[in-house]
Structures are given as C-alpha cells and as structure tokens.
Amino acid sequence: MESALPAAGFLYWVGAGTVAYLALRISYSLFTALRVWGVGNEAGVGPGLGEWAVVTGGTDGIGKSYAEELAKRGMKVVLISRSQDKLDQVSSEIKEKFKVETRTIAVDFTLEDIYDKIKTGLAGLEIGILVNNVGMSYEYPEYFLDVPDLDNVIKKMININILSVCKMTQLVLPGMVERSKGAILNISSGSGMFPVPLLTIYSATKTFVDFFSQCLHEEYRSKGIFVQSVLPYFVATKLAKIRKPTLDKPTPETFVKSAIKTVGLQSRTNGYLIHVLMVGRLFESQISTFWLGVSFPLSYRIVCNRLAYIHCPAIVTRHLCPVIIIMVVYPRTLQSTSK
Ligand SMILES: NC(=O)c1ccc[n+]([C@@H]2O[C@H](COP(=O)([O-])OP(=O)(O)OC[C@H]3O[C@@H](n4cnc5c(N)ncnc54)[C@H](OP(=O)(O)O)[C@@H]3O)[C@@H](O)[C@H]2O)c1
C-alpha cells in the first residue's frame, strides 16, 4: 500500500498539469474565437491592399457576394465569368450601387487556353485581392465510373477547380510580391476536408485547393501576402441546388459577410461560425491526433451519407473524451492506486 502513494502523487501532478494545460488551451481558443467571429478584421480588407479586387466566378453565388462586399469597401472590381450578359448586368449593378470602377473578362474556366486573355485584361492593374472562387461540382452524386461523360467531367473539373487556382495565382502573385502586400482567397469546400464518396473528383480537387493554399501561405506570408483556404459547408446557391437559406445553409451574402471578417486572421477557415461548429474546429488546437482517430470512423460514415452536419456526435465525443477521462477515470485510478 505504501509503495502506491508516490505513484498516486505522480498521477495527481500529471492530472493537475493536464487540467491546467486544457484550461489554458480552451481559454486561448475562446479568446481567438471571440477575436475572429466577434471583432474580425474589417479594417484590414480593402483598397489598402491594392486598388483592385479580382473575383473568378463573380456573377453569381459566393463570388458575386465577395465582389459586392469588396466593392462596398471601396475596391475596384474585375469580374471574370463565363457569360458576357451576366457580367455586364452584375458589373453595372456594382458600379451603380457602390460607385466603384469595374471591369469584366468573359472566359470559360473549363478551357486551358484562356490565360493570355485574362493576363491582357489584368495588365497594369494594382491587384490587392484575388478571390479564386470559380468551381464546379457534380450534377448529382454518382459512382466514379457511372458519372455521365466521365472523360469530359474529369478534364473540366480539374481545369476549373484546380488549374484556374494555380494559373490565376501565377498571374496575380508577382505584382503582390513586388508591393509586399495582398491577399489571395481560395474557395475550397467542406468536401475538401473529408473524403466525400460519390463526389470523388470534386472532393479531391477541393483538397488540392486547401493544400495549395496552406503551402502558398507558408511560402509567401513573410513577403506580406496572406493566402486563405476557405472551406464552406452548404451555402444556398445554384451550385449547391439550395434555394431556401437556413441557419446552417446561409445565403451567399451572409456567408461572405462572415468569411471576410476572417481575412488576415485565419489562413484556413470555414468562414461561418455555424459551419465551424458543425465541423468542430473551434477547439481544434487542443484535439490530439488520437481523439481525431477515435472520431474519424464515425464522421466518415456520416459524411458518406452526405449528412455531414450530423457528425456533431463525433465532435462531442472528441471533445468530451479528455474531460470524461479527467473527471471520471482519473479519480478512480487514484482511488484504486491508494487502496
Ligand atoms: N454553394 C455551396 O454550398 C458551396 C460549398 C462549398 C464550396 N463551394 C465553392 O464555392 C465556389 C462558388 O460556388 P457557388 O455555389 O457560389 O456557385 P454558383 O452560385 O453556381 O456560381 C458560380 C459562378 O461561377 C461562374 N462559372 C461557372 N462555371 C464557369 C465556367 N466554366 N467558366 C467561367 N465561369 C464559370 C458562374 O458564372 P456564369 O453563371 O456566367 O456561368 C457564376 O458566376 C465554388 O468553387 C464551389 O465549389 C460552394
């Protein structure tokens, strides 16, 4: 019995240390969350980074909302999309509403030979923000081999979701590096955070965007460039085929108003607090790989069922496990060692 006491003393300090560590991490996470979602970085996003903002896929959905939000902050806007009619319409709406200069470039991002035209269109502009937003998904979830016109879908999806991000960055980044400031916002997806079977190519291309953004941010942040990977869950747009917005499927305007607050503060973000809570990243910093390993099979199954937001039980488990161990298992271990 006597020999158990030093072990109990040791365990007591291990437990106390763990509790203190977790308390510190949780306080830090809460402080960070308050700073990002409560205060945000409203002032840092605007013409101070450069006169012009360039938005790909800027005539609808999330891209149009970014264009409007940046114009509202006084930035001149270049819209790059497919249909000239829609470009003209959105461009004159923005010009009239926000009294800023606009330009349009009509290209189809599923093609590869469009970048000379874009380069010409952007020549001489001081670009402060690039939003790589354009993207396409499946018409409906399907097994890889059963995707209609698979050859074309592979080519188009890689061109629009991956090639456009690399090539637009290649065109715009040199000017930003020269001026030592700028921001590149790459719209990935929640589907890029987890494997989503039946949306295989889309999910994989969005993971590319996420990794590309994280790597680029590390390479260029010391040169004054902020690169952000934006990973939304559902937003009520044509692409998502959602007409009626709800709290967890916001309008693109609501989503972008929230996401823009995180520019300069989070290099990887879900952009919208409800989506952050759905994916359980608020306290991510204190989740160990072990807890992630425990919850992943559960999250994975649910993501497979395309009910990603229901994977909250996995998140709760993940966060509660350390607490249960500290509150229940650890005191019992202490009791049994001291007997
Ligand atoms: N909505 C969501 O739930 C959701 C969730 C996660 C991630 N995302 C990502 O967010 C981004 C924007 O999606 P969204 O939902 O806002 O889409 P959206 O409402 O369908 O808007 C797409 C925009 O891209 C343009 N576009 C589409 N295909 C094009 C092409 N081949 N060439 C040039 N422009 C093209 C469209 O212009 P035209 O109308 O002229 O073709 C439109 O301006 C995508 O990268 C998507 O993967 C969306």
TrEMBL record:
It is found in: Endoplasmic reticulum membrane. GO terms for cellular component: fatty acid elongase complex. It is an enzyme of class 1 (oxidoreductase). It is a multi-pass membrane protein. Pathway: Lipid metabolism; fatty acid biosynthesis; Steroid biosynthesis; estrogen biosynthesis. The chain crosses the membrane at residues 6-24. This is Very-long-chain 3-oxoacyl-CoA reductase.
